[in-house]
Amino acid sequence: MPYVNIKITDDGVTQAEKKALIQGTTKLLQEVLNKDPQSTFVVIDEVDTDNWGIGYETVTEIRKG
Amino acid sequence: MPYVNIKITDDGVTQAEKKALIQGTTKLLQEVLNKDPQSTFVVIDEVDTDNWGIGYETVTEIRKG
Amino acid sequence: MPYVNIKITDDGVTQAEKKALIQGTTKLLQEVLNKDPQSTFVVIDEVDTDNWGIGYETVTEIRKG
Amino acid sequence: MPYVNIKITDDGVTQAEKKALIQGTTKLLQEVLNKDPQSTFVVIDEVDTDNWGIGYETVTEIRKG
Amino acid sequence: MPYVNIKITDDGVTQAEKKALIQGTTKLLQEVLNKDPQSTFVVIDEVDTDNWGIGYETVTEIRKG
Amino acid sequence: MPYVNIKITDDGVTQAEKKALIQGTTKLLQEVLNKDPQSTFVVIDEVDTDNWGIGYETVTEIRKG
């Protein structure tokens, strides 16, 4: 019964990429800890780059360089 | 001072349903643990069905059957 | 497929009280949004009163009055 | 390597205010715990006032008075 | 700059298993979204089986069968 | 009604340091967004260094360097 929350910046992540994250995480938990995929939840949060900060700057600013 | 976070899929949940979740959770914490409703926070996150995975599939795919 | 996280202070909450929180939350989501209890996760975090702050004070201090 | 998540209501918070929250939090962790700003993440979640409840009411209702 | 939080039950997960979860998640984000491993945080929370509920029961009860 | 969650590694953070984090965060939200300290919650999670990964390594390993 794992629950995994993945927070990434909102950069036009595609449906295929989201599915790859969900499948990869579910497989990892099955391989490492033998967790049942049917009770593994993966939730992806896409965060606006104005709302994510590192090193005193927003990601919006970091990307502008 | 409880803090409750409810994550559900983004399926057109109405204002009335959100209020029912907030009231039911607050009442539960008051009844079970005698917590003061005035310092009980309930935050509801509505998650896109593309961003929620169970059993190697997104909820979008599961619903399509 | 809801996921609910309940954060409360670590005050000797009993197994019976935890079960009451889990059952009440699961029932609420079934009644309000028709969510399947078998795919409703409830996770309770018990937080040390030194680690929870409100109004510039820790809960430890607030309780001492 | 701290991770800080700030949840606030979605009330037209400006880019400048978000930056002030990010800078203030990062500076606080540097001053109090000597944490490296380059590995301090701050993520701001803006929550709809319909989705935040206190004292049996949504923030939407509380603001209407 | 992804942040990943993995919640699992507290079942004597070993250091090697934790490292495998961290490495697998970091690699997945590098492969799928080209994220820099140096700014990928993975945080594992181990939750007491009394504090995790599914289908009206705690995991403690489910395991007892 | 902000809710702030600060995740840091479990390195013997003192009560005074925790209080400084709570007070600094609460003051920041008051100054930047005019939030009422009485409804500002700050919750600090201390995470085992085995359970926090960056750049394919646990913090335990990084510190051994």
Automatic annotation (TrEMBL), chains A, B, C, D, E, F:
EC number: 5.3.2.-
Matches recorded under InterPro entries: 4-OT, 4-OT-like_dom, Tautomerase/MIF_sf
Pfam families: Tautomerase
Gene3D superfamilies registered for this protein in UniProt: Macrophage Migration Inhibitory Factor
Annotated ranges, domain 4-oxalocrotonate tautomerase-like: 2-59
Record carries keyword Translocase: no
Enzyme class: isomerase
GO molecular function terms listed in the Swiss-Prot or TrEMBL record: isomerase activity
The keyword Cell membrane appears for this protein: no
Entry's family note: Belongs to the 4-oxalocrotonate tautomerase family.
Protein name: Tautomerase
Biological source species: Neptuniibacter caesariensis
